[in-house]
Amino acid sequence: MRRSILLTVAASATLALAACSSGNGTTGGDDAAETDGGSPATGATLTIWTDETREGPVRAAAESFTEATGTQVEVVQKNYDDIRPDFLAQVPTGEGPDITVGAHDWLGELTTNGVVQPIELGDKADGFEPVSIQAFTQDGQVYGLPYAIENIALIRNTDLAPEAPATWDDAVAAGQAAGTRYPILVQTGNEGDPYTYYPLQTSFGAPVFAQNEDGSYEPELTLGGEPGHAFARWLAAQGSAGVLSPDVTADIARDAFANGESPFIVGGPWLLEDYAGMNLAIDPIPAPGPETAKPFVGVQGFYVSAQSKNALVANDFLVNYLSTEEAQTALFEAGGRPPALTAAAEKAASDPIVEGFQAVGADALPMPSIPQMGSVWAFWGVTEAAIITGQTDPVAGWDKMVADIQGAIG
Amino acid sequence: MPTAPPTLDPPRARTSHARDFGPGFLVKLVLMAVIDALGVFGLLACWREGSMGIFWALLLLLVAANYVYFSKRALAGKYIYPGLAFLLVFQIYVVGYTAWVSFTNYGDGHNSTKEQAIEALLQQNERRVEGSAAYPLAVVTDGDDLGFAIVDDGRVLAGTAERPLEEVDGATGADGQAPTVVPGWTVLSYQEVIARQQEVTALRVPVSDDAEDGSIRTQDARTGYAFTPSLHYEEQADTMTDALTGVVYRPNAEGQFEAEDGTRLPVGWRVPVGFDNYVTAFGDERYSGPFLRILAWTVAFAVLSVVTTFLLGLFLAITFNDVRLRGRKAYRTLLILPYAIPGFLAALLWAGLLNRSYGFVNQVLLGGAAIPWLTDPWLAKLSVLGVNLWLGFPYMFLICTGALQSLPGDVMEAAKIDGAGRWRTWRSITLPLLLVSTAPLLISSFAFNFNNFTLIYMLTKGGPRFEDASVPLGHTDILISMVYSVSGLDGTAAKDYGLASALSIVIFVIVGTISALAFRQTRKLEEVM
To answer: What b-and-e string marks burial along B425-456, b requiring 16 or more CB atoms within 10 Å of the CB?
Structure first.
């Protein structure tokens, strides 16, 4: 009886193996045929994670890389929001990519978890905008190849407001004079939007973390105290005056500006594709406080996995192929984010809209990438929204928020 | 010793259908061949990737499958084997893994193994020697060892890991480019370099006998730089030493390297922490207060959702079951529409409809009222229940319609003959009979709503926030959305998979217990029959 079990198992297994082996034979033939064109194949395959908007240019750079070196590149398109958690979860298992696209403010989390490795740009670093390299630097080491710098600014509909407002009150007055439904649009939502509100906060002199002289951040909260209270009181006043409201979600703000319902919106270059055909100008964000309104600068770039088995090829691809003016310009054209490579950025600045964002970005501060930044968001926006609606007393609410963030940082 | 009574051998069939070579057996053979093919393919793939855990599990399942389907002794097994296999893979393994994670400190800063943490720390702390130059570089070999040949001020220097750099005469190459010919060394082609890339990345060629000068390394096999490590790992002692200050870091119980003064190196690793996560969930007052409130709301939400959707569904089912109603097929189709819209989309739509200033409900239906549907604690709860009612009643309507149509007519007739009124018939006959067939579905509906993450996340994100709590949790958060916030998956907090897993296990125990008790109760319903 036992023998017959073995026999039947063996029979089915043989069938299975036969099916497998014939399959393998044909794919092997295809592989050989593919590499006929360029350099001899190296056998290494580089895996790159990218999102939808960057897939095209990365693929183009990858093709020229394959042509020159014979190394195959597999470009994997992923949902942008999934890249960070998946990268953190998969790199330790050895399943992650060799290179991933990412924002500079992930850096703290990526290094604490040991999933990225430093890259040496050498003299090439001088070709990039200093803020972009600074953003990817931690403890003196550069961890990413920057390719785009993005920040928010005031987008103005020149048909409704011919002149740039100097202060926040000017902007509100100009908006009311224009007779539109909203004097000025700042996207908020019930959870708040501290990123969009940050320039307004910095104008009161309340940045989120203390900065060292070289621009790096210390995990010491600086958003409390009198400047923070002044900002909170201002939020409450604007809320009761009806200028700011949590009911204005990102979608509502975006549509309202497109429909000409306000002369101003605070937002980034990613909004522009909805506003094709409108007459726009890009201005500095009008400051409600005594200081300049400085938004956060976000830098987009590429990271190399700490567990990459193709680290050599990955570095070669980043440092020698994606840092070229051609590749950086292609990435700019695909995503509309101003390039980080100075030569490409200057070329892009021939467009006054891009130049406008770059001018505001020159004043701006890189978003902190220290790990403690991750504990800030959850409390920050919700408190701002609650102060605007009047649910929370501005000063007490702001103080509780600072205490809660301090508690979460530990 | 009493002798056993002689037993009669049960009559055994001469052939069992386990190996009866009929047409059925052939079908089975082909199906098993396909399963074995997939299994063997999976085994080979696991072997190649070195995933031995999956390899052994798969092998076990495969062997068991072949035994169950080809042996005479495992007749009963073939009915339950597929279910058991899927239960093992998709339920028991998942619960087991979650339980295991809940006893570790897996999360931000403790993301991986100790080996990888050490590797990452060394990677992050190898620094370029200040003011050193960039050298054009070629990868070379002296026959045995790999080495680098670099160009420094027009001179060509070469060396290996064992032999510090020495000048080589007669080397050629374009100015400012990597050398192409180095006497005494073989220059590797790009393809050869890539084939040995891990050796190349790991190679450090000392600049001189003095370790202070650093070692040449390359990251792209085109340019070399002098690096010095600022951290040393002593394998024997299992300690990290800072090269500049000489401070020694030792591994501590929390999975981090710690110096005597308490400073820690940033990258840690996963270690078992016992019941710490459970203690935090119940003992840390930042979590325990909101936890009880959220638990109460979760139970209320799940129970009320089931009750309201069931009552509305039942009411409509009875109404549309009346033969006197014209066009009831059309009505029924319309009623099922909310069920046809994906839940997450419907919840998002409702979030827009209920916006305080611009939502359709306030603007059009209520003539411009500013009712804070989603931002007032009680109204938000009401909105969640209302939207879930809208989403859930078609399901109850469907199952109630089905159950009503299968009620035996003779019992109804008997009730009528006995003189029972309409209400009496409904109370004593219809409802109990209906509950017999729908109660298990109500229990599963309860379990589903207990973990109805999509609705909460898409509609309110758990808001409005508790004003008196110091964690990012709100009035409409249910346990599973609390787990999502606590684990930091939404990107608003540091990740803590250990705590999140501990909370998940608590949820599992609660849902499991309630369901088990409820199923026991439903048996009593059947006694009505």
So the answer is: beeebbeebbbbbbbebbbebbbebbbbebbb
Asked if pLDDT for residue B255 goes beyond 70, the answer is yes
- Report chain B residues whose CB lies below 8 A from the CB of A245: 357
Same domain for A131 and A174, yes or no, is no
Whether residues B33 and B174 share a domain: the answer is no
**Same domain as B516, residue B472:** yes
The CA distance from A358 to A34, in Å, is 43
Contact state of A113 with B108 under an 8 Å Cβ cutoff: yes
The answer on A268 and A319 residing in a single domain is no
Cβ contact, residue pair B111, A114, below 8 Å: yes
pLDDT digit string, tens, across residues B267-325: 899 999 989 888 888 887 778 888 889 999 999 999 999 999 999 999 888 888 877 87
- The answer to whether residues A75 and A356 touch, using CB atoms and an 8 Å cutoff, is no
Alpha helices in A260-393 (DSSP H): 311-317, 325-335, 342-348, 352-363, 377-389
List the domain range (segments joined by +) for residue A276: 153-294+370-409
Percent of chain B with pLDDT over 70: 94
Q: Convert the pLDDT of each residue in B421-460 to its tens digit.
A: 888 888 888 888 888 888 889 988 998 999 899 999 989 8
Query: Are residues A11 and B198, on separate chains, in Cβ contact within 8 Å?
Result: no
The answer to whether A192 touches A385, Cβ cutoff 8 Å, is: yes
Residues B224 and B329 in one domain: no
How far apart are alpha carbons A207 and B487 in whole angstroms? 27
Tokens of A241: 């005056």
Inter-chain touch B193–A40, beta carbons under 8 Å? no
Distance from CA of B108 to the nearest CA of A (A): 6
Q: Please name the residues in contact with B500: beta carbons below 8 A apart, sequence gap of 6 or more.
A: B483, B484, B486, B487, B489
Nearest chain B Cα to A5, which residue?
B70
Q: For residue B3, give how far its alpha carbon lies from the nearest alpha carbon of chain A (Å).
A: 31
Whole-prediction pTM: 0.78
Q: Which residues in chain A touch residue B289, judged by CB atoms under 8 angstroms apart? A: none
pLDDT value of residue A3: 42
Q: A264 with A389, same domain? A: yes
Same domain membership, residue A165 and residue A91: no
Residue B242 CB contacts under 8 Å (≥ 6 apart), including other chains: B230, B231, B248, B249
Residue A295: asked if its preceding bond is cis (omega within 30°), the reply is no
Distance from C-alpha of B3 to C-alpha of A160, rounded to nearest angstrom? 108
Cα dihedral A7/A9/A14/A17 (nearest 10) = -160
Chain B interface test: which of A83, A87, A112 (most B C-beta within 10 Å): A112
Q: Which of A119, A307, A408 comes nearest B493 by C-beta?
A: A408
Question: What distance in Å separates the CA atoms of residue B380 and residue B373, rounded to the nearest whole number?
Answer: 5
* Contact residues, chain A, for B109 at CB < 8 Å: 112-113, 371
Distance of CA B53 to the CA centre of its chain: 18
Within a domain: B39: yes
| Residue numbers in B near A306 (CB within 8 A) | 116, 119-120, 123
What ranges in B284-342 are assigned the alpha helix state H? 285-320, 328-340
Averaged pLDDT score across all residues of chain B: 85
Residue type, B478: I
Q: H or E stretch including B483?
A: helix B479-486
Q: How far apart are CA A330 and CA A336, in angstroms?
A: 10
Position B527 scores a pLDDT of 64
Residue B205 belongs to domain with CATH number:
2.40.430.10
Residues of B with Cβ-Cβ distance to A392 under 8 angstroms: 467
CATH of the domain at A389: 3.40.190.10
- The answer to whether residues A104 and A369 touch, using CB atoms and an 8 Å cutoff, is yes
Minimal CA–CA distance to B107: which of B270, B264, B278?
A: B270
